[in-house]
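ERR on first pass: missing label on line 2. Operator R.T. fixed the label and resubmitted. Corrected input:
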Amino acid sequence: MPTVKLVDENSAHPIVREVFADIKATKKIDFIPNIWRALASHPEHLRLCWTRLKAIMAPGKVDALTKEIIALAVSATNGCNYCINSHTAATQKLGLDNEGLGEVLAVVGLFNQMNKLADAYQVEPDILPAPR
Amino acid sequence: MPTVKLVDENSAHPIVREVFADIKATKKIDFIPNIWRALASHPEHLRLCWTRLKAIMAPGKVDALTKEIIALAVSATNGCNYCINSHTAATQKLGLDNEGLGEVLAVVGLFNQMNKLADAYQVEPDILPAPR
Amino acid sequence: MPTVKLVDENSAHPIVREVFADIKATKKIDFIPNIWRALASHPEHLRLCWTRLKAIMAPGKVDALTKEIIALAVSATNGCNYCINSHTAATQKLGLDNEGLGEVLAVVGLFNQMNKLADAYQVEPDILPAPR
Amino acid sequence: MPTVKLVDENSAHPIVREVFADIKATKKIDFIPNIWRALASHPEHLRLCWTRLKAIMAPGKVDALTKEIIALAVSATNGCNYCINSHTAATQKLGLDNEGLGEVLAVVGLFNQMNKLADAYQVEPDILPAPR
Amino acid sequence: MPTVKLVDENSAHPIVREVFADIKATKKIDFIPNIWRALASHPEHLRLCWTRLKAIMAPGKVDALTKEIIALAVSATNGCNYCINSHTAATQKLGLDNEGLGEVLAVVGLFNQMNKLADAYQVEPDILPAPR
Amino acid sequence: MPTVKLVDENSAHPIVREVFADIKATKKIDFIPNIWRALASHPEHLRLCWTRLKAIMAPGKVDALTKEIIALAVSATNGCNYCINSHTAATQKLGLDNEGLGEVLAVVGLFNQMNKLADAYQVEPDILPAPR
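pass 2 clean. output:
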């Protein structure tokens, strides 16, 4: 059960109304996902979060599907259930099928393993070219 | 300092020789990265890790650059220094420039934030279509 | 479902009885939260945990509400559902309202993001004064 | 070594100049911390991060010292070295002495332990009042 | 709810059939645990995971119960519910009683606390003998 | 560099003197590891931590080497450098050789991978017997 009362989709608060309308338009969905209804209990924080998410998730050098795959990889590494559900659905909507999902998760699992082995053996970085 | 003595690149152990040769050929590099020299202290485990990594990282439904980006996203989320260095270098080698790197890390940072907010508000998954 | 049978609130085990009575008196509550009923399956560990928690959570240089806010920040960062519920309730009892909770969680989300960016860019500490 | 070249404090990029000037004025410091010099490799992301951090860290219902203590608790829980250094220094600047720091970290350590015990015993949330 | 449809225990896919039969024979169980039914949505990944798990979990220098205890310690540290359930059951099957489980989890909790204190105080490794 | 000044091994503070002497006697070492010198900046917290660690690490149903292996598994999963060094050394002192260490870390790596896959596929616990 959420720790705050989820704000109604038809909230009268002007900031909330504006952000909720933009979420629906931008994501082309007809409901407000629960995370945004929770964040709306603090309208200014809702706006800060949404504005930034919208800017960062817009396709640029990296395309929209790759961005959702990154979001899924981060969410699975953190074990965030809500987020895993949400980003799995988003990658499917953008065309990743079950086989592709299996491949993505295989890479996620692999490097969670390799990360811990690299930490455990305390290996130092290989000599690499200086950063550009 | 590594917790085990790194195995020499010219090790005479047959499994280690075979795996080290395959690492150089597959990755088109002329040295053995430190993580593999550490894992070589247990040759069977070295072989298990390398065989699996080679299979999973081969391009399939998901291309090689996207796989390295996933590896970087996981490594940054886990805060594994060796791995961050290694996968940053690999994404650059595959063509991601500094602006692209900035975009990738912006997404990584964003969802580490959103993950914690979703957990903190204990929001329940939105109703999504059944898995396929 | 818990992995051990939760110990009854009216347990006859002398250590458990003593600790349970002290939990109720110290926290001014009339039930034993589930975590303590689980820990009671190993009475000595229950006592070690409670004695230490009681000592650390007593107000000192840092007041009780700030200590519960720290507990919530740690629990949200770790994604521990039981703990998030428990410490959200505790901060509310100590006077933090929903707007204050929103502010606290905004800071928690912010630094989970900044932590990953600092790790990902491998920035070295700024030169700071020597520790006192 | 950072994975990108840190941007010079006297960068000529207009967004970077503006953000760097605001960082110095807002934090009352005369240098640019390394994390902002790294983020400046992607000026738009620098601006998004700084704008949001400035808004969230301004005192509101929660005071500035408590916000830095939350930042330190998050950073210690994530094990982010750069961030631990930075926020330890910030709490000292705002008046937390070594004894207070010891108290804060005692709480951080305590709940990292309790979080894992609650997870391990899979205890379910106590029945709490409905969220407001 | 799983993010993929769990593969039926009587799947006709040859790789899945072979792996499922080996799981039942090796673990001496008469059902396929849910994690393997999920992994089976990508048969090659299922095979890679099972082959490696079977090799690593076979008793060697380290006995089977200790290996399950390590698995439980890792799972509790990561807060993975499914895994905590599965490895708690496995340690019980191998003879660990509730008192032993309490001892194991006491150690897990203790070092989750100590890890964060060591990180928070940024203590440097003690001078130890060179690795062998 | 530690965030607090490490307390001198010959500190005159009565609590610190008593705990330091007990650490040397209990661990059969002739120096005080850095973590305890850092914790000594808050003598009461030092005492709380040491008393509990000593009680939990004493052999009971679980032997001393297994307890150090759990400590190493937790530390590697958390990526705590100081702790990994310290517990690797402790396991070696108690007789684990490099091959045994390789086996332990193989299990640690394996379940860090499996944990993330179980989380990512959101598999629900198998039906297990009720807890005892």
